[in-house]
Amino acid sequence: MSARKDLASAFESAPGMIYRSAAWYDQLYPQAMEWAQQSLQIVTAHADGHLEKVLDIGCGTGRALDLFQRNGASAWGVDILPIMVAASEARCPAAHVSLGDMRSLALDEIFDAVISLGSVFAHALTDADVQATLGTIARLTRPGGLLVIHVLNAAAVLAGAVKPEDLSVSARADDGVYLGEATGRIQRRNSRLVLTRIWRRDGTPVSEEQVEIRLMMPIEFQGWLDRAGFDVLAIADNAALEETNLDGQRLWVVARRRSSQR
Q1: Which residue from 172, 207, 153 is spatially nearest to 26, judged by alpha carbons?
Q2: pLDDT value at 13 more than 60
Q3: pLDDT, the chain, mean
């Protein structure tokens, strides 16, 4: 099976408990609103004064699209899951939302900023996936434009500062309280975290889900982005982009598209 089909197959099996509805997803990940607000702050702080069009890759339920629109930008969003596209369209009727694979987006627009939040980028599992994704992003980002990638912090995971169980989630439904208990194993040879969630409703097991995500170290981001035509502005485990020992759960990678190739 090709890398392109691998990614599509992964998301075809994804809708289980995590993606059963937009309202459910928002309840499982209330921190996604904070991530959207932080992405807006980062883009606003580092934009070169020209911020008209923003693209959100893996737009989910449209929280970031809504925020950027409210702050005067024209928003585009893409997601590989139809349920997320529908949710974004419902939340942001004025946004341009479409179904798409981040490795090969068929958009005829050039953007002032491209964002990708919530570890969407980490679903580029292979080097071929990463190269194709960053090639697509480079094509869609104008010279001087910003790229903001937000992912699980591989450095903290590999050091044990962030554990798979820290990624457990919970939500309340009409039929009870659901807990998605996370466990995981690291495939060091191919830099992946295989995350498994056992879902329990009021303590009773009802479902199991598994997903793989790429663990990319900061120095790897630096190299990949340089080759794709971006200058890295910051790699930090906080939205203020302050320098730390990188033991926080999430990583913010901020880069600017170069005006010309070296």
Answers
A1: 172
A2: no
A3: 92
